[in-house]
Amino acid sequence: MCNLKRYLQRTKTKFLKLRCLTANNNLPQQTIKYYRKHLLTLFAIALVLSGFLQCVYAIMQLLGIKASGHPEFAFTGGFYNPGPFGCYLAVIFPITLRLIYHNSKFQNHFGMGMVLLCAVLIPASMSRTAIIACGMGTLMAMSDKWNPSHLKWKKILIIALSCAVIGAGIYLIKKNSADGRMLMWKVAAQAVTEVPLTGVGWSNVAGTYGEAQERYFASGRGSEQEIMVADAPEYVFNEYLQIAIAYGCPATIIIIALIAGGVVIAIRNNAYGFAGSTAAVATAMFASYPLQFPLFVITIALILAGAWISSSSSAVSLTATTIIAVLTCLFFTHHESRDISTVFAVAHTLHRTHNYRKSNTMLLNLLPHTADPMVLNIISKNYRALGLPDSAEHYLQKSINRCPNRLYPHYLLMLLYKDSASFNSSAQQREARILLDMKEKIPSPAVEEMRKEAKTILAL
């Protein structure tokens, strides 16, 4: 009887507590908080495991067990270049770093192992963007462990000078590459101004960039260094500009808002690992091309979703994650890809077999999707063979403006002005002189052959 009374008393107490929690609306909040915590843990585990698998893949490539994605590099992970591989590890590194402070010994030791792997593989990738992204992410992820207000001005000065020296070193290591990237950003920003709201579509970004670069150098604004480093990129090495060209400035603004808001929300709710990874994503997107890889896109979506899920407001986290999910799905459904190399190879074969009209039809349809000046060169050769010298000259001038450091279009112009239908002795000699005076980017036997013919024309 006493036991029954005690049992009833305990049941009554539990019921009163439950009713109190329900009346104060605390039970749903506790449940939401519980599921939010476990969802963040699930996201973190998925991201860290993905990074671990990439590290294992890279190590197998270094050991010769697996083939590298690029013949010129010892390892690339699951990518075709060590740059994106290094950036991928960099965006996961902050979440990995926070595992060291976890109460679980397994997660603690696993986190330390992953940190060591990343500390070796990220610098070995020789990706400046990856190194900077890793540094930015680490500062954000560890922002609760240090207090800048405690630093004296001498230490701040030393830190600032060290950052300046490191930044200068990173720039000077690959100066031409850095200058080329700045040229791409300048030209891409001009391309954005031509389609600020609608964009041109993802598959047309390269062609739009190529046209913008033509106009830039045709205007005479390009410096000698810019002429030397100009190239025909497949993407603009800045995903904010890439998105703006493809889908318009509003799309870029939404992405920036999601990233910036994710960092703020994650820090306010003590999700420092996701805050650091979001900061690393922002850096990688600024100077690399992570959106070219489906795995990277999914990883970025998980990181941003994790940052927003940490919000104490269910409405905010649900709205933001829904937007992220919808944008990710829209990106994959509107992420058109074209096999540029195969189409060009077929068109080039048609040119060699003297099927000039069909070759040009394919190449002119290809132009909006590529910045490669070689497409313009073959179009010009087709027009020359068809007896249309004015059209041939037009496309060669476009090729020269697109990449002013290329010698081949000047050589083709020299041959064009030699033809009886478009003979122009002074123009021919001008192009021959350009061939002799212009500094080539990469010496080759083909360059020597072209210069030999130029000397013959100038009677040197």
Describe, in plain words, how this protein is organized in 3D.
- This protein has helices at about 1-25, 25-60, 80-100, 105-125, 130-140, 155-175, 175-195, 205-220, 225-230, 240-245, 250-270, 270-285, 295-310, 315-335, 340-350, 355-365, 375-385, 390-400, 410-415, 425-435, 445-460.
- The protein is about 75% helix and about 0% strand.
- The radius of gyration is 29 Å and the shape is elongated.
- It has 21 helices and no strands.
- Helix 7 packs across helix 8 (about 205-220).
- It is mainly alpha-helical.
How much helix is in the residues?
Answer: over 70%
Kindly state the mean pLDDT as a whole number? 85
Main sheet properties: none
Head-to-tail CA distance between termini: 121 Å
**What's the gyration radius in Å?**
29 Å
- Strand count: 0
Helix/sheet category: mainly alpha
Shape: elongated
Low-confidence stretches: 21-27
Share of β-strand residues:
under 5%
Helix tally equals 21
> Element order, helices and strands?
HHHHHHHHHHHHHHHHHHHHH
Q: Which features does this protein show?
A:
mainly alpha, 460 residues, elongated
Give the helices and strands, then pairings.
Elements: H1 2-23, H2 26-62, H3 82-98, H4 105-124, H5 128-141, H6 153-173, H7 175-194, H8 205-218, H9 224-229, H10 239-247, H11 249-268, H12 272-287, H13 294-309, H14 314-333, H15 340-352, H16 356-366, H17 373-385, H18 389-402, H19 408-416, H20 425-437, H21 445-458
Helix pairs in contact: 2-3, 2-4, 2-13, 3-4, 3-5, 3-12, 5-12, 7-8, 7-10, 8-18, 10-11, 11-12, 11-13, 12-13, 13-14, 15-16, 16-17, 17-18, 18-19, 19-20, 20-21
